[in-house]
Amino acid sequence: QVQLVESGGGLVQPGGSLRLTCVASGSTAGIYGMAWYRQAPGKQRELVALIRVDSSTNYADSVKGRFAISRNRARNTWYLQMNTLKPEDTAVYYCDAQAHRDYWGRGTQVTVSS
User: Fold this and answer.
1) pLDDT tens for residues 4-16?
2) Cα–Cα dist 58/14, whole Å
3) In whole angstroms, what is the distance from residue 6 CA to residue 23 CA?
4) Weakly modelled stretches of the chain, pLDDT under 70
């Protein structure tokens, strides 16, 4: 089993920045990839960014050039640096650990508003 805890969400003005953190515990040796998803009210959960075991990354078109996913494998920690935030980035952000199955955190709220 893998447990994930996200943190770092909050209220930020448009154009601001936040860094989300996901800490994994438990059977972390089997994790081969980590992703961040988000879900806005009334919308489906969507992939924001992912990082694979070889450190290759993918981003949603809507966040390319603004968000960056990174990790500290030694600390079983993943990050999502979010810059130049827009109101449409408002959502609950979830981290997803990809192992023999997917594991999910409970999410952290990000609200971009003036």
Assistant:
1) 999 999 999 999 9
2) 24
3) 7
4) none
Give every strand in the sheet of 18-26, ordered side by side: 2-7, 18-26, 77-82, 67-72
Collapse the DSSP code of 64 into the 3-class scheme (helix H, G, I; strand E, B; otherwise coil) and give the result. Answer: coil
Rounded Cα distance, 108 and 48, in Å: 14
- Alpha carbon distances (Å) from 41 to 31, 89, 94: 29, 11, 14
For residue 25, give the DSSP letter.
Answer: E
User: What are the Cα distances from residue 1, in Å, to 8, 30, 104?
Assistant: 24, 10, 11
User: Contact 96/104 with Cβ under 8 angstroms?
Assistant: yes
Amino acid at 60: A
